[in-house]
Task: structure prediction
Amino acid sequence: MDEKDPRFRIAAARRMLARAGCESRVAGHVSERATGEDAFWVSPFGYFDETTPDMVVKVSFGLERLEGDWEPSPAVEFHAEIYQRRADVASVIHTHSHELSKFVTRSRPIGMYNVAAVLFFDDQVCFDRDDPSRHEMGESLAAALGDKRVVLMKNHGAVVASQSLEQATIDAMMLEACAEYHLAAEAIGGTEFEEREVRRGRDRYRQFFLPNMWDANLRRLRRSDPDLFEHVD
Result:
């Protein structure tokens, strides 16, 4: 296995997210579309920081396990729905990170209180499940997402749908940070950026910040998580 393998990259992504405070205990999932197939690679139940490539499984859009030994969560059905509706989406991440989980106790988007928040300008939707007792919510969540990249799930967490696993990972990481900035800034009466400044900074953050953040976090993992790299030839 090399570092381009989706199983390695999903395991690396989950460890990056854990380091950034996005651990979701044994819930939450990270997935990547399987190239040329009606399927996706996805993490099973387990702490984000314990994930190794051999834990990652391939699942069909019908939720049939195609490769791997671990059982996928039944909750990944919304990943399949998003992939089927959005050809532009290559990765879906679902977390219940701490500050974000506090933030979504009310239905409102994350504000532009910090420069990193420009990543999410005009790209968020709020979603409140009609029936919390039902586990299946794929169709309604995917419909709510529309052409955006972030779903803020009332009293639950968030879903990020992005054009690459690397981008989705950093998006999810920064969504947690920006939720924290919003709550702290709001508490002291802080104000948001002007829209013209947000629009000016958004493209540059996507062009430079996102890829460099992935590379930097992978370098950190080489030092902190040698067991992850034992799976790489």
